[in-house]
Automatic annotation (TrEMBL):
Pfam families linked to this entry: HisKA_3
Domain Signal transduction histidine kinase subgroup 3 dimerisation and phosphoacceptor: 195-259
Keywords for this protein: ATP-binding, Kinase, Membrane, Nucleotide-binding, Phosphoprotein, Transferase, Transmembrane, Transmembrane helix, Two-component regulatory system
Classification via SUPFAM superfamilies: ATPase domain of HSP90 chaperone/DNA topoisomerase II/histidine kinase
Feature: compositional bias, Low complexity: 269-284
Region called Disordered, residue ranges: 256-284
TM region positions: 74-102, 114-131, 137-159, 475-502
Species for this entry: Streptomyces albospinus
Enzyme Commission identifier(s): 2.7.13.3
GO terms, molecular function: kinase activity
Name by which UniProt lists this protein: histidine kinase
InterPro entries named in the record: HATPase_C_sf, Sensor_HK_TwoCompSys, Sig_transdc_His_kin_sub3_dim/P
Lineage: Bacteria, Bacillati, Actinomycetota, Actinomycetes, Kitasatosporales
Catalytic activity: ATP + protein L-histidine = ADP + protein N-phospho-L-histidine
Length: 592
């Protein structure tokens, strides 16, 4: 399991590259990436156009942004390096840097490789920024460049890597959870099988032995010459009942052992006199065996009538067996609670189900109904559960004439709508676990991006709820930590930037009244004492679009503290000196 956890990031990173191969991307992703490329291309061209670049440069930057966008999935490190370095001379690639950093944080395999890549990109981009501003480089350039690259490259990379690792962990936990559920199901199945085999063995060893003794003794008693014909007939009924009970025990033991035939408990202990009939002649335990039950009751001196209506139809093995059990339970209850009362068994083949009904009249006055009858009270309960599992029902209650009625409704098909199966022990049998249990099912296919983080397949509600709370709390805590880090960096950048801007403003800005106080013809030394030095990055672009400088003069351009005539224009005050004298002062606006 540890090896699987270690290899999970590689297994998730590899498909990202493989999907870039022709024909491997699904249509939905192709459309999404195409639209994203168009968006980045248009944004890059638009941002570049705001800088008054030429048409060729605008088109080139837009095409580069559009091409680099889909490549970030296959070549995350290369795209990040190219995009970050290209964003220094071309502002149109700045927005793509954020997405490329996020994608690189997700897809670069290995912590060392990721740290090396982001470190190289950071240093290279910062170096290009310094080289670009080298003629007018200052501490402010370094601070702003460092903070901007930290926010634009490092923070998205960390966020992307955290998201990727969290998804890797949750997908691995889901896979591990599914494996644990499968193993738990296997262990539970083996435990049930062992318990069934133990019960089957106990039934075989105890009940089988006792039934075999009954069969032997009744067989020997049946041939006793001192018995009358009536007594010999009753003993024969007992012997046949014991042999039938042994066959039923054999069937139950076989079902408990998942369909394997158990050895006949009478094989080793039954005498030839108790043999009765072999397996081929064993009485049926379905609808066909009800006639045998009726005949046995008639032999015991009870008046039993068997009726059948409708066209016989095939039943599921479990329904066929349940019909036999209903008839058997009804006869048993009538013999115990109303001995001597007439009994009627009716089989009605309805269009959708078989109705088995056993009704007896009131017990005769001379039957001794006041005697104590041993009854566990579990027969009807067992029948109700047996029929419920196959989609039927059982009803039991007194009749209007003082008798008792037991009726069962047995459908021809299974609850799932299947057809009758001729194979015993099919999916509908009550001894086989349902195959459609949702707790045993796992999601088919690989775990995609759109899958939930954890669905708690088959977990108890309390455990699933606890895991959900833990997952939510952990995600909120980490998310708040990342947000707090970003907020802290922005606050630091704002404070440091404000301090630097105040210092730079003192070097590069004057109020209009100071401009008005300076007069043409004053000496250069006197004027410069009243004005700041102007060596600031705020005055770097004040000469672009300015009026021509007088021949042979040296000028000092400063920003005004007032606003321009529009948001795209900055007011400028310029002072020109020649041969130690102020020969011109001019106020104008330049495009920002």
């Amino acid at each position: 399991m540890a090896a699987r956890l270690r290899s999970a990031p590689r297994r998730l990173a590899a498909p990202g590259r493989a999907l870039f191969a022709p024909g491997m991307w699904p249509p939905r992703r192709i459309v999404g990436e195409s639209l994203l490329s168009v968006v980045f291309g248009l944004l890059g061209a638009g941002v570049e156009a705001l800088g008054h670049s030429g048409m060729v440069q605008i088109v080139a930057v837009g095409l580069a942004a559009g091409l680099l966008s889909p490549l970030r999935r296959a070549l995350p490190a290369t795209v990040l390096l190219v995009t970050a370095a290209g964003s220094v001379p071309f502002d149109g690639l700045t927005l793509l840097v954020l997405v490329a950093a996020w994608s690189a944080g997700r897809r670069i395999d290995g912590v060392g490789k990721a740290v090396g890549t982001f470190g190289l990109v950071y240093v290279l981009t910062l170096g290009l920024e310094v080289m670009q501003e080298l003629p007018h480089f200052s501490l402010a350039h370094l601070v702003f460049g460092t903070l901007w690259l930290l926010v634009a490259i490092i923070v998205p990379g960390l966020a992307g890597r955290y998201w990727s690792q969290r998804r890797t962990l949750t997908d691995t936990l889901r896979e591990y959870n599914a494996q644990l559920l499968r193993e738990r199901a296997m262990i539970a199945g083996q435990a049930r099988m062992r318990e069934r085999q133990r019960i089957a063995q106990d039934m075989h060893d105890s009940l089988g032995h006792q039934l075999a003794l009954i069969a032997v003794h009744t067989g020997a008693l049946e041939v006793d010459r001192e018995l009358t014909g009536r007594q010999r007939e009753a003993v024969g009924v007992l012997r046949e009942a014991s042999v039938a009970a042994m066959h039923e025990l054999r069937e139950v033991v076989g079902l408990l052992r998942d369909g394997t035939q158990a050895p006949d408990p009478a094989d080793t202990s039954r005498s030839p006199a108790a043999s009765g009939a072999d397996d081929a002649a064993a009485p049926s335990r379905g609808v066909a065996g009800i006639e045998g039950l009726v005949e046995s009751s008639r032999n015991a001196g009870t008046a039993v009538e068997l009726r059948s209506s409708g066209e016989p139809r095939p039943l599921l093995p479990t329904a066929d067996h349940a019909a036999y059990r209903i008839a058997q339970e009804g006869l048993t209850n009538a013999h115990k609670h109303a001995p001597g009362a007439p009994i009627t068994i009716e089989l009605r083949y309805e269009p959708d189900s078989l109705v088995v009904e056993v009704a007896n009249g009131p017990a005769p006055e001379t039957a001794g109904t006041g005697r104590s009858v041993v009854s566990g009270g579990q027969g009807l309960t067992g029948l109700g559960e047996r029929t419920r599992l196959m989609g039927g029902m059982v009803h039991a209650g007194p009749t209007a004439d003082g008798g008792f009625r037991l009726a069962g409704v047995l459908p021809y098909t299974s609850p799932e709508g299947g057809v009758p199966s001729p194979v015993p022990g099919d999916a509908a049998t009550t001894f086989v676990d349902p195959t459609g249990d949702f707790r045993q099912q796992t999601r088919a296919g690989s775990l995609g991006e759109g899958d939930p983080v954890m669905d708690g397949i088959g977990l108890p509600k309390e455990l699933a709820k606890a895991m959900s709370r833990s997952k939510t709390s952990s995600g909120i805590a980490i998310g708040c930590g990342v947000a707090a880090l970003i907020a802290l960096l922005l606050v630091i950048a704002a404070v440091v930037g404000g301090i630097l801007l105040l210092g730079e403003a003192d070097k590069a800005m004057i109020e209009p009244k100071r401009y008005d106080a300076v007069k043409v013809g004053q000496s250069e030394a006197e004027v410069r004492k009243q004005l700041p030095q102007g060596d600031s990055f705020l005055t770097d672009d004040l000469d672009k679009g300015a009026p021509p400088v007088p021949e042979g003069a040296k000028c000092l351009s400063l920003n005004s503290t007032e606003s321009g005539s529009s948001w795209r224009k900055d007011p400028v005050f310029r002072f020109c000196f020649k041969e130690g004298t102020l020969i011109e002062k001019k106020s104008f606006e330049v495009r920002n």
